């Protein structure tokens, strides 16, 4: 049987959660504080790029199971369950900023139905369930932690086919009610206490970041000793204890979660009296990776970047998303601009002429060839598939020198070298 659900925060996690829960038969009201976002959604326009999301949103709007409103008070008045999907950005000291969580909880507190359940899907430090309880100021409402593990780019798929559902609750009956919302999903369900649920989320992201930093460090070793990292990870991945998932060298990790969550976990550990040196090392290796890739580009340009035009393919933090938050590409581009380079970029998800302060100093072009026009070096910084199938003769024609730094080891080497390109990659 469907339930009445409110979702507070209609971003990557909230919109996916709302659309998927309505698809699963629940009656969902999504709330945001940005009027333009709510208006766009009410016109059926999806503000983010996420495969399959528009179909689910339109299905929900047509059936009347999914609606969008500004302001939380009305949305939660009938809700049996209220999800919190608001941002938890990084504060200046590295810890997670809980002000959005506190504000949202304080706003809905007076309007919640007695015995309803507030489900926190935002990524929050250990102890935040208590913070939510305090901000709600309601002893007759349960608070449950239910961390989200979806990946941007396949958010809908991941929500509907999760590897696991984790529920952290002190109250068994509340945990059982929340578990009931996910009936029909073929996934292991883990019920635990709130602190463990909150830690599972941070530990998972930190471990994934560690895998990438590890393989990037191995790539640096490969370059130093003359090994090929692609062959090395293939050989490592056959070991079932290691596996090949997420062992891919690249320009460093980024995005809306790994950077802030790694820093937050360092702080959580520190506050609890543990110096998480390993994770600090993982973060340092990642910063070094941005610099290493920028240096490769500088070397390819002949040792200096002042006045040199660099073509950049890929701006988003990974393929199949339009999300620029903490993108490795922008980290590297920042280093190039600081050295006086002129950057012309193309990204399938970022339209030419896009005005976004994060793109300051970059000429965003309408196609990949225009980005290469007059460039001395081409660099690939996001792994969009389409970059593999481009016309290399056209690229060679418009560039002033044939130099490629493939930050994702994405392009096939021989078609480039056959055309006289000098190619550098990561760990090869
Ligand atoms: P987002 O920035 O895309 O979306 C957050 C939305 O909340 C925005 O639309 C914002 O306007 C809205 N909002 C802020 N305050 C509000 C309020 N008081 N009432 C209603 N709406 C409000 O963020 P996101 O990427 O969806 O992340 C949300 C949380 O989920 C974060 O804690 C994040 O760490 C976590 N998370 C994100 C991902 C991911 O891949 N993006 C994956 C797992 C977990």
Commentary on this structure:
With 428 residues, the protein is α/β, with parallel strands linked by helices. It folds into 2 domains: 4-192, Rossmann fold; 227-428, NAD(P)-binding Rossmann-like Domain (Rossmann fold, 3-Layer(aba) Sandwich), CATH 3.40.50. The protein is 42% helix and 14% strand. The protein is built from 16 helices and 14 strands. It starts with a strand and ends with a strand. It binds nicotinamide-adenine-dinucleotide. Nicotinamide-adenine-dinucleotide binds next to helix 1, strand 2 and helix 5.
Brief digest:
With 428 residues, this protein is α/β, with parallel strands linked by helices.
Number of domain units: 2
Helix content estimate: 40-55%
Based on CA atoms alone, the radius of gyration comes out at 23 Å
β-strand number: 14
CATH topology of the largest domain: Rossmann fold
**Discrete helix count:** 16
Oligomer: single chain
Q: Which stretches are poorly predicted, pLDDT < 50 over at least 5 residues?
A: none
Largest sheet: 6 strands, parallel
Average per-residue pLDDT, rounded, comes to 97
Query: What structural class should be given to the helix and strand makeup?
Result: alpha/beta
CATH second-level architecture of the largest domain: 3-Layer(aba) Sandwich
Query: What general form does the structure show?
Result: globular
Which ions, cofactors or small ligands are bound in this entry?
A: nicotinamide-adenine-dinucleotide
Order of strands, main sheet, comes to 3-2-1-4-5-6
**CATH superfamily (homologous) name of the largest domain:** NAD(P)-binding Rossmann-like Domain
Per DSSP, what share of the residues sits in E-state strands of 2 or more residues? 5-15%
CATH class of the largest domain: Alpha Beta
- Alpha-carbon distance between the termini? 55 Å
């Amino acid at each position: 049987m469907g339930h009445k659900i409110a979702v507070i925060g209609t971003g990557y996690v909230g919109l996916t959660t709302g659309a998927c829960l309505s698809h699963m038969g629940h009656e969902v009201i999504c709330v945001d504080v940005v009027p333009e976002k709510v208006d766009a959604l009410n016109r059926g326009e999806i503000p983010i790029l996420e495969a399959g999301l528009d179909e689910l949103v339109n299905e929900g709007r047509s059936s009347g199971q999914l609606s969008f409103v500004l302001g939380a008070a009305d949305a939660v008045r009938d809700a049996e369950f209220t999800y919190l999907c608001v941002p938890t950005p990084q504060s200046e000291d590295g810890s997670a900023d809980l002000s959005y969580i506190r504000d949202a909880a304080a706003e809905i507190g007076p309007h919640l139905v007695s015995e309803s359940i507030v489900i926190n899907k935002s990524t929050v430090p250990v102890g935040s369930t208590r913070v939510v309880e305090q901000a709600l100021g309601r002893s007759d409402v349960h608070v449950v932690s239910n961390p989200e593990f979806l990946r941007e780019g396949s958010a809908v798929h991941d929500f509907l086919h999760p590897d696991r559902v984790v529920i952290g609750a002190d109250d068994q009956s509340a945990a059982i009610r929340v578990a009931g919302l996910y009936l029909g999903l073929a996934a292991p369900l883990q019920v635990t206490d709130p602190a463990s649920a909150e830690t599972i989320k941070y530990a998972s992201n930190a471990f994934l970041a560690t895998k990438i930093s590890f393989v990037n460090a191995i790539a640096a070793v490969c370059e130093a000793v003359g090994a090929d990292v692609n062959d090395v990870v293939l050989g490592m991945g056959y070991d079932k204890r290691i596996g090949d998932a997420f062992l891919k060298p690249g320009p460093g990790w980024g995005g809306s979660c790994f950077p802030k969550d790694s820093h937050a976990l360092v702080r959580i550990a520190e506050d609890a009296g543990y110096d998480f040196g390993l994770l600090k090392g993982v973060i340092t290796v990642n910063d070094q990776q941005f610099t290493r890739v920028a240096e490769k580009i500088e070397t390819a340009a002949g040792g200096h970047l002042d006045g040199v035009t660099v073509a950049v393919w890929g701006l988003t933090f990974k393929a199949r998303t339009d999300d620029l938050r903490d993108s490795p590409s922008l980290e590297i581009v920042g280093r190039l601009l600081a050295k006086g380079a002129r950057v012309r970029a193309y990204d399938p998800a970022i339209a030419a002429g896009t005005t976004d302060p994060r793109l300051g100093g970059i000429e965003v072009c309408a196609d990949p060839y225009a980005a290469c026009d007059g460039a001395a070096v081409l660099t690939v910084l996001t792994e969009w598939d389409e970059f593999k199938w481009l016309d290399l003769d056209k690229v060679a024609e418009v560039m002033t020198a044939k130099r490629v730094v493939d930050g994702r080891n994405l392009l096939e080497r021989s078609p480039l070298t056959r055309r006289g390109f000098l190619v550098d990659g990561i760990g090869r």
